[in-house]
Amino acid sequence: MNDIGASDHDPHALLRLCHLVSPALPVGAYAYSQGLEYAVHAGWVHDEATTLDWLQGLSCNAIGTLDLPILLRLHRAWSAPDLPAVRQWTAQLIAARETSELRAEELHLGRALARVLVELEIGEAGEWQQAAPAFATLFSLAAVRWRIEAADALRGYLWAWSENQVLAALKLVPLGQSCGQRLLHRLTAAMPGIVERAQTLADEAIGVGTLSQAFASALHESQYSRLFRS
């Protein structure tokens, strides 16, 4: 696999990646905490150290072992092109979401990104607005059409997830802005290893191993007072 960064040979691709991972992208990711809100409510996450433990666990054992390897396969499928493979990996990612809130989030973000990409002249995204897309389905489509290398797409996806989770933690724990920057700094240091591992996983090794998140997400569905939708 060619692992040359977009910044090494295509500045437009790097800028498009920045666009794709920007918090300003109107997909509504800010409304979801992916179980973190319940983890804070239960006292599992209550300060900087426990927030870091929670996010590192998810980035290594959920995003890095499920989302990223499937994103890689979706990138290859769009590049081929192989639409049956796109549909297969999309369905597998959605099926791996263990609660109704996590599945609803996946579908909402996927359809929202489809609408954005249609506005940005990626017409193929249109058919996914009424379908059942994963966010990674449309993220990988944009990456391929904007000539973003697969490894760069994985890094960007992981960064965007990490930033959104840190922003949620700032509101929920709560944490200060300086603490948030320290968390992002620590999470970023581990990202190259997570991405490298994701690129080596065989199909049968793809999966998620974060029971605490599954419990938190399920219990969040009946939590009395909530700021986030997941």
Index terms:
230 residues, mainly alpha, Urease accessory protein UreF, 10 helices, 66% helix
Kindly give the count of domains: 1
- Which fold name fills CATH's third level, the topology? Urease accessory protein UreF
CATH level 4 superfamily:
Urease accessory protein UreF
Indicate the mean pLDDT: 95
Helix content percent band: 55-70%
Largest sheet report: none
Q: Could you say which overall geometry the principal axes of the C-alpha atoms support?
A: globular
CATH class: Mainly Alpha
The span between the termini is 35 Å
The CATH architecture can be named as: Orthogonal Bundle
Strand content: under 5%
- Uncertain runs are 1-7
Structural classification: mainly alpha
By DSSP (H or I, 4+ residues per run), the number of helices equals 10
Taken in chain order, the helices and strands follow as: HHHHHHHHHH
What oligomeric arrangement do these chains adopt? single chain
Number of DSSP E strands: 0
Walk me through the structure.
About 45% of the residues are buried. The chain contains ten helices and no strands. Helix 4 (about 50-80) packs antiparallel against helix 5, helix 6 runs parallel beside helix 7 (about 135-145) and helix 8 (about 150-170) runs antiparallel to helix 9 (about 175-200). It has helices at about 5-10, 10-20, 35-40, 50-80, 85-95, 100-120, 135-145, 150-170, 175-200, 210-220. It has one domain (about 30-220): Urease accessory protein UreF (Orthogonal Bundle). The chain is mainly alpha-helical and about 230 residues long. Residues about 1-5 have low confidence and may be disordered. About 65% of the residues lie in helices and about 0% in strands.
